[in-house]
Hints:
The chain is an alpha/beta fold. Helix content is 43%, strand content 18%. The protein is built from 10 helices and 10 strands. It has helices at 15-27, 39-48, 65-73, 92-100, 113-132, 153-166, 177-184, 203-213, 230-238, 251-263; strands at 7-11, 32-36, 53-56, 82-87, 105-108, 145-149, 170-174, 191-195, 221-225, 243-246. The protein has a 5-stranded parallel sheet with strand order 2-1-3-4-5, with helices on both faces. A 5-stranded parallel sheet has the order 7-6-8-9-10. Helix 3 packs parallel to helix 4 (92-100), helix 5 (113-132) packs across helix 6 and helix 7 runs parallel beside helix 8. The longest helix has 20 residues, at 113-132. The radius of gyration is 19 Å and the shape is globular. It starts with 6 loop residues before the first strand and ends with a helix.
Amino acid sequence: MTLDELLVLVIEPSKLQRTIITDYLREVGLRDIEAFEEAAPALERMQQVVPDIVVSSMHLPDMTGTDLVTRMRQSPELMDVTFLLISSETHYRYLEPIRQAGAIAILPKPFCKEELATALRNTMHYIRDLQEHDPDDHSELEFMQVLIVDDSQMSRKYVRKGLNAIGIEQVIEAKDGAEALQIMKQRRFDLVISDYNMPNIDGLELVEHIRHYSDQPTVPVMMITSEQNQSRLAAIQSAEVSAICNKPLNYDTLKQMVRQFTTGTDQ
């Protein structure tokens, strides 16, 4: 699969910004691009043909980017469509739902072409691996047991799809650290992927319990978080987490980390 095979919908109210974004998309190799000023006509178009990628601004005339991605995730046909946000918005209450909905990337406005190209490469790799993955292909990942811990069902689904694309099928989900610890009493895992901010038992408490009180103290734990507080991030690191990744999770990063944890290489 190549970039010129992907259908992209761009939703941006500013004609200048739409032109800049579509020109950048063409420069990196995309050809099939449809542009919209508002979200509603784009959603109507998605009912006719399912796009591979939706690139949207946050503040649209008829709804926010958060509203848009929420509606997409509520549709069985659109719930897996790659969503990329381009916005100057920095407020947590706007961006966190986008992160939880499994956006492939959140780019600042203005953005550079290299940032967009990286996000699109991730998207292409994800779609290619998902479409070309052969469930009968017996690899070292076939028997890998992974536990996903996140209070967002959409986030868990996004990570699960990424693992499926890599070739991992044996995945268990938990809605918070408390449920994860109960599951770990019954099953052993090769990798735990956890959110940080969760009710009951958060990601930090989960890691500390795994390392000091469980019978799986050496299991790799990959923490996914949108946390920006440096003292909290330092606390996570000191709890002997195996890796800390930003939310939204970069697919290529997920793939590389899984390879490192299982084979010791990123190939």
